[in-house]
Amino acid sequence: MINLTDSAVNAVKSAISSSTQPASGLRIMVEAGGCNGFKYMMGLADQPKPDEKVIECSGLRVFVDNKSNEHLVGTTIDFVMALESPGFTFHNPNATSSCSCGKSFS
To answer: CB-based contacts of 47: which residues, under 8 Å, 6+ apart?
Structure first.
């Protein structure tokens, strides 16, 4: 299960409401790359793809493909307003290490 904090849900809902493209949820993926082996990818999406699970988080639809879900089980996503690096943070219990920016893990 993937969890989003209230702050993350509010940030995504705000992005959806101001999007010029149709969007009904958030797509989260894990891809090979980054400085630690895997990187997190996120974006607004209108509909889930056939291989994606739909997770409901406080009225927000989150789309995650089965392969990415294996890496993300138990992950909490937060949205932090910080001077040095505002944005989404991932607290992933499956990651054995992560880079300093928090966008890449192994």
So the answer is: 24
Q: Report, as an integer, the average pLDDT of 52-63.
A: 95
The gap between the terminal CA atoms of the chain, to the nearest Å, is 19
How far is CA 43 from each of CA 17, 29, 72, 97, rounded to the nearest angstrom?
A: 14, 9, 16, 24
Of 7, 8, 25, residue with least CA distance to 16? 25
Model pLDDT, residue 102? 55
The ranges assigned to domains in the chain are 3-95
Phi, psi for 80 (deg, rounded to 5): -115, 135
Count of H-run helices and E-run strands, the chain: 2, 8
pTM: 0.85
- Classified by CATH at the fold level, domain 3-95 comes out as Hypothetical Protein Aq_1857; Chain: A; (2.60.300)
